[in-house]
Amino acid sequence: MTKFDEATQAIKIDDTTYDVCLDPGYAIGGPLNGGYLMAVILRAVVDASPFEHPVSTTAQFLKPPVPGPAQVRVEPLKAGRTAAFARATLVQDGTAKIEGLITTATLGEVTPDYHDDDVHPMPPLDDCLRLPDPKPESGMTLNAQMELRFDPPTIGWLKGEPTGRPESRAYFRMAEPQDPDPYVLALAVDVLPPVVFSAGARGWAPTVDLTWHLRALPAPGWLTLIGGGRMISDGWFDEEVEVRDSTGRLVAQSRQLARVGRG
């Protein structure tokens, strides 16, 4: 069991209740990362499902949970021959923090009938850049759990040179050696800096709603994250992320609605 597996484990109490312990190592300046929280919820949902993989997840982030004990309450909605549907709620101190609707199925190792190869070209890994290590007092503990190597223009905002477009692109893998799986993908779709940084905005940008789809089981190796947005308006922005595995195959895609940071 890796550190990430341990940090996301869900212990079954009864048919619909799982105990979890939210790990402080996945914080972004205080709040816990949304992708990490989805991975915790999905551990419980998949355990309660007759199928192996979370193929579609929609999560609404009601209130930020804090590190420590919590519960995932799973409500099965329907199970068919190829998919099952469930509602899941992350509860802490008697308060619902995240509500999710999850579809599970079992994916096979198959060749896609159609695969879109039209993806933004990434520079070689050695030409990509790391973000500076955060100061201990920043509360950015998530950085220590993963490696990100960025396409240089998309972190120009660090030097006050944003591209003016909502975008972010990087190679990603866990800091502890681990082949990517669906739970790592749940984290991966939400680890890029908010794409509005590259458009000139700053500050914590809380996610309100995030939907992501597991499209295929990833091959071992680095993942490629391609993030972008379509509109920034009235304090809101959208963010779309494609995740490609080391073979270039699309393995996950997400869209979220979030608030623009307040500086």
UniProtKB/TrEMBL annotation:
Residues 25-104 form the Acyl-CoA thioesterase-like N-terminal HotDog domain. Residues 126-260 form the Acyl-CoA thioesterase-like C-terminal domain. Gene3D superfamilies: Acyl-CoA thioesterase, double hotdog domain. It holds the Pfam family 4HBT_3. It comes from the Bacteria. Coiled coil: none annotated. This is Acyl-CoA thioesterase. It comes from Nonomuraea coxensis DSM 45129.
